[in-house]
Each structure stands twice: as C-alpha cells, then as structure tokens.
C-alpha cells in the first residue's frame, strides 16, 4: 500500500477530539446542568404563585419536554454534520488516489473497500459516518444545511442572544457584588435612577465613592477574571464548573430547607390557586431561560467519552432539573405570603444579631456570582466559535495567522458586552428582548429548521440506507410542525407578558 494512501487512511480513522481533552458523561451533564440552571430559577416561585401550582406544574413539565426535544434535534444535526465532513474527506482520499495512479501503485479495490465499507453498515446497523467526535457549532451547521436567507437569520438571532446573555450576566454579577459591598439603599428612595449617585458607604465623607463606581470596578474585576477563559476551550473550565456547581447546590439547598422549615413551623402562609390563566404569560416569561442550553450544546457534548447513551443521560438531566425547579417553586409558593420577583430577597434576615442568618444573607446575595461565573465562559466560547464560523473557513482554521485565529475573536466576543454594561447598567429592555424573541428562535426555531434541512441533505448525499444512530426519537415531521406552531404561541405569550409589564 502506498505510504500516502496509508497516511490518509490513518487520518480518516483518527478521532477528531484529543483524548486528553475529554471528560466523562457525568462531568458533561454537570456542564449542562450548570448552563441551564441559573438566576432564572429564582423567578419561578413568584411566577408559580401567580399562575397557580397546577397550571405551573403542567407548563413547566411541558416546557422541559419541548426543550429536550429540540436538544435531540441539535444532536442529530451535529451527527449529520460529522457525516458530511467524513464523506467529503473520503472523496478527497479517493481523488488523491486517482491522481497518483500514474506515479505510484494504485490502491487495490479491496484496499479502498477496507476504508469505505465499515462506514456503511446496512439498513439496520448504524453507520460510522454519523458521530459526535468533531465539535460542529450551530454556525457551521447553518453554513452546511441552510440557504443564504436562513444563515443570515440564524447569525442575527444567535449574535443578539449570545451578546445579550453576556451583557446580562456581566451586569447581574456586578450589581450583586455592588449590593454586597455597599451599604443598603434607603427604603424611602423609590427612584432607581438616583441609586447610582449614592455613596457606596453611608458613613462616607469627602469625595464619596459612589455605588456606580463600585459597580464598574466589580464589572471590570469579573470580566478580568472570567474573560481569559474565552481564549481556551470549554474543557479548561472543568474545575471552575465543579466548584461553582457545589456552591449553586448549596444555595438552592439553603433556600429549599428554610422554606420547608417555615412550612413546618408556621404552616403554609401562601395560598396560590390551582389554575390562573392570567398568570400564564408571566410564567412563560420566567421559564424562557429555564431550559436553555442549545446554543452551547456542541461544545459541551463533543468532548464526552462514550456517547452511545447520550440521549438517555440528557433526558435524566432534564428530569432532575424539572424536579428541582418544582421543589424550589412549590416550597416558595406555599411558605411565603408574599413573594419577591427575585426569590433570594425573601431570605433577608430581620435579626442582624444572628450570625448564622447574616452569613446566609451574604451567601444568597452572592448567588448570581456563583451561577453566572460558570455560564459566562461557556457562552463566550460559544459566541467566539460561531463568529469564527461566520468569518473564517473552519476546515482550514490552522492556516490563518495567530492573531486572527487566537486573539481577535475572543476579544470581539467579550469587549462589546463589557462596554455596554459599563456605560449602561440598566439593561431591562435587553433582558426582555434577549430572553423572549431571540430565546424562542434559539431554543425552538433554529434546531427545527436545522434538523429538517440536515435530514434532506444527508439522505441525498449518503442515501436512505445509511442509519444515523443519533437520530432524534421525535423524527416524525409532525413533531417538527408542532414545534413551529408552539414557537408561534411562545411569541404571542412573550409579547403579552412584555405589554403587561409596560402597563
């Protein structure tokens, strides 16, 4: 066998992710859990109380199911993209073998079949064309399977959502740190525009250090600490993920335990109805972030070792998150007569002499810092990768110079959200727009259009007999139509919710 043919064959069979950069399925599920469960969970108890515990339970379980369905669409599309790349590499090998026919010994038919046959295993055995070894971002999938109009809509929606997310995370962490460091805002101050000009410390004299100054220092510190992770891959955040995951579980455990203690000691103080349809738009507005992970899924699952039962593990992860959300919302809705929109505000202690309650107060006040510190690098890395897919040819990424390949896109991903939140700390409108319209597109519309286009493309390219072992269990076209109809309903609900809040 000619050396060139042997070398190309070896490359074709090589895994597309480095073994040293991989992690177990359980670490991958922790990544997904950390990305999904964030500060949005803190708005669920108040939304549950308004919409009613029965309607809220049904709605949350249904939203979890819809989100998981679209996760399976992303996984199937990623496997299709891997199949397309492998098919193209195989064609490249064949063309090179033909061009070397006169100068070198041509590979025999048996040698060619040795390379190709294991990839197509018949109607019942899954094909090795389909895999999740190579990380293919949503942007690359859009380039492969969507037309020009679809790609334009995709990148506009994705950039709005990811840039919005990074801005929201930066502002939330900076404000949380500011609230912990500075003195409490006077209760008689109702105009929020005056908060920034207040001195950070109530006993300040002379040139007072304002709350806005503290916010900006906290913002720069946070981005300075989390920003460098965008220059690396998701795997480099492993220990940060594990640490903050523990802090996150501890914070939620404290809130659930204290709510259960109140229920046992004083009885149910809250009396939420079973069904209140008028609270449905608010509930959906609170849940829009609750199951979002689709934009960063390729970067999280490609390094996982042993993906044969990935769908089952993700289903269990979603089930755990749903149970966790229900436990948090139920205990909060019945334990408190009045629920703040941000659940942690219900745990501010009234007895400042109690050192334990004082510690709990500060710990829960720092909750956004624990949750968003893990999500920020993942979102930033996802944005960086998709910007590369938009402007560069990812099939020859290593051919670009170091500045363009390693420095430019991480900076472009992090600096605009930093500048936005540095000069505009009130980003309420951005939060509503990002989490509603762009969120609906990322979670429902994009995965559905991608998987429909990917199925047609791969069927034409490889034939109907090549089996995709990562095919979604919701592969019937009726499911896709149902998702599109649900997306339309979501837009209506979100619009109603935003209109009610303006009133």
Q: Could you estimate the helical fraction of the residues in percent?
A: 55-70%
And the CATH topology? Amino acid/polyamine transporter I
Helix and strand sequence = HHHHHHHHHHHHHHHHH
Stretches where pLDDT is under 50 for at least 5 consecutive residues are 1-20, 109-118
User: Radius of gyration, Cα only, in angstroms?
Assistant: 25 Å
Content of β-strand: under 5%
The CATH class designation is Mainly Alpha
Distance between the termini: 76 Å
Q: CATH architecture, please?
A: Up-down Bundle
Main sheet summary: none
DSSP strand count: 0
Apparent shape: globular
Would you tell me the overall average pLDDT? 78
Total count of domains: 1
Class based on secondary structure composition and strand pairing: mainly alpha
Q: What is the overall number of helices?
A: 17
Pfam family, one: Aa_trans
Subcellular location: Membrane
Family: Belongs to the TMEM104 family.
Transmembrane segments: 23-48, 60-85, 153-172, 215-234, 246-263, 283-304, 316-339, 359-383, 403-424, 478-499
Can you put this structure into words, describing what you see?
With 503 residues, the chain is mainly α. It has 17 helices and no strands. It starts with a helix and ends with a helix. Mean pLDDT is 78; it is low at 1-20 and 109-118.
């Amino acid at each position: 066998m000619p050396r060139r043919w042997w070398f190309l064959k070896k490359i074709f069979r090589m895994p597309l992710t480095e073994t040293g950069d991989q992690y177990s399925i359980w670490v991958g599920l922790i990544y997904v859990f950390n990305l999904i469960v964030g500060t949005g969970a803190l708005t669920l108890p108040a939304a549950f109380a308004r919409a009613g515990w029965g309607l809220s339970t049904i709605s949350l379980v249904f939203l979890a199911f819809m989100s998981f369905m679209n996760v399976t669409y992303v996984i199937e599309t990623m496997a299709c993209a891997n199949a397309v790349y492998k098919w193209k590499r195989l064609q490249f090998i064949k063309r090179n073998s033909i061009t070397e026919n006169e100068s070198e010994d041509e590979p025999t038919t048996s040698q060619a079949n040795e390379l190709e046959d294991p990839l197509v295993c018949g109607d019942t055995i899954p094909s090795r064309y389909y895999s999740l070894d190579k990380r293919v971002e949503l942007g690359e999938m859009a380039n492969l399977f969507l037309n020009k109009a679809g790609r334009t809509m995709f990148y506009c929606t994705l950039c709005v959502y990811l840039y919005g997310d990074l801005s929201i995370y930066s502002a939330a962490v900076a404000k949380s740190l500011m609230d912990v460091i500075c003195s409490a805002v006077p209760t008689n101050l109702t105009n929020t525009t005056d908060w920034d000009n207040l001195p950070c410390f109530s006993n300040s004299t002379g040139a007072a250090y304002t709350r806005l100054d503290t916010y900006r220092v906290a913002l720069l510190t946070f981005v300075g600490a989390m920003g460098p992770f965008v220059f690396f891959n998701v795997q480099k955040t492993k220990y940060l993920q594990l640490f903050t995951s523990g802090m996150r579980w501890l914070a939620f455990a404290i809130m659930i335990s204290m709510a259960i203690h109140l229920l046992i000691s004083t009885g149910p103080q809250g009396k939420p109805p079973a069904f209140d349809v008028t609270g449905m738009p608010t509930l959906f507005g609170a849940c829009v972030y609750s199951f979002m992970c689709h934009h960063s899924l390729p970067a999280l699952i490609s390094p996982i070792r042993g993906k044969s039962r990935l769908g089952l593990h993700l289903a269990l992860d979603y089930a755990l998150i749903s149970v966790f959300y229900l436990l948090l919302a139920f205990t909060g809705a019945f334990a408190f007569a009045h629920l703040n929109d941000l659940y942690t505000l219900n745990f501010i202690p009234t007895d400042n002499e109690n050192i334990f309650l004082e510690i709990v107060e500060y710990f829960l006040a720092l909750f956004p810092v624990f949750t968003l510190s893990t999500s920020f690098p993942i979102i930033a890395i996802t944005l960086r990768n998709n910007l590369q897919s938009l402007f560069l040819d990812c099939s020859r990424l290593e051919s670009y110079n170091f500045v363009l390949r390693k420095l430019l896109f991480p900076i472009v991903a992090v600096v605009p959200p930093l500048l936005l939140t540095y000069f505009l700390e009130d980003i309420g409108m951005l939060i509503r727009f990002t989490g509603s319209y762009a969120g609906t597109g990322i979670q429902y519309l994009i995965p559905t259009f991608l998987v429909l286009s990917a199925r047609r493309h791969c069927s034409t390219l490889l034939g109907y007999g090549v089996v995709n072992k990562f095919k979604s269990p919701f592969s019937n076209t009726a499911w896709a139509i149902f998702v599109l109809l649900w997306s339309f309903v979501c837009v209506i609900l979100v619009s109603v919710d935003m209109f009610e809040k303006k009133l």
